[in-house]
Protein 1
Amino acid sequence: MVEGSDLGTTYTDGKLLTGTSGPHRSIQEVSNTGFYLKKLIDPNDKTSTRGVQSDVWWVWFRLGEVYLNATEAVFELGQTGIALNYINALGERAGFPANSVTVLTNERIRNERRVELAFEDHRLWDLKRWRIADKVWNGSTSGADAVIYALYPYRVIRPGNTHDGKYVFVKMVAPRFRAPRFFQLGTYYTAHGDCFHTTNQQ
């Protein structure tokens, strides 16, 4: 199944068949993944319209990052108890029960950074700092982290079926990013973020 040529197409019953918000391979200013970012966006009406000024400040550094930095630092020093205090403080701010994390590993800390700091321009620098960018973005078409995927929304048209009228999301490679991400080893020694080679390398 591939995405349609138009967004917001309707079926013969006049109801929406494909999503209006994308993804799409050629329409400009439309999501390439089927999702839009709400994080750090002004929730007030029409503030996303061009020419409208938002009063939401861009966050350069926030408490969540402080907790994550402290967690990683003291864990590296072998002070697991203190690291657990920091990571749980972070979780409690997000609504998790007190002391919900009882076992801590490097992988857990790294995943917490990935989730908490998503869309805040930390991922590249974290992977470089941990020296695993070449392993995560290895250029493999079968690499779950190297390939950029999209979820395409479709309404199920099956009269009499329990799923009729509901939406399904078909996972596909994002059309504008066919080549998987490939981090070149030499980029560990560069200061800028232009680190991907577009040629598919296995």
Protein 2
Amino acid sequence: MDFSEVVRRRRMVRRYADRPVDPALVDRMLEHATRAPSAGFSQGWAFLRLDTPVDVARFWEVTTPEHADPEGRWLTGMRSAPVVVVPLTSKDAYLDRYAAPDKGWTDRDEARWPVPYWYVDAGMATLLILQTVVDEGLGACFFGITPSRVDDFRAAFGVPAAYQPLGAVTIGHRHPDDTGSRGSPARRERRAVDEVVHRGYWGG
């Protein structure tokens, strides 16, 4: 698929067909994720791959808040995905990398960082997963894990305390009835390029 077409087609899919995903495609998504840029080549990301019915069911069991989605539509659709990938990031990996001799910030002071690049870089890696999904003709949705459920998630999957989940990505074949987003994009217009690009000087 042409790259510009991948960009245009990317959207969040919230309902999936009852079909497995070829493990080789998931391999490719995760390999592409590791090609994302990272500050100092720190590569402080990690990815928890859940692609068996038991693991996927456990994910939903430990991350779904009580009284969530009272009408059941969102959860029903999202739980139909056969694959869940959880991108994680390690702040320590970045602080340690920039305390190395070729960087020299030996105090590991977070105040030196203009923004928390451990999140930025893991976010870019996650976008490469989402773009690869489109290129392979599949669907995906990125969403957050409720903070009150993160400890349960860690315990269920043995995630070290040094790694923070950014959220999760459901992956699967789009359900035939999934004809478009019912989320915010269905209620809000996409901002025009001229509204968000300021060339040379912001002004106004």
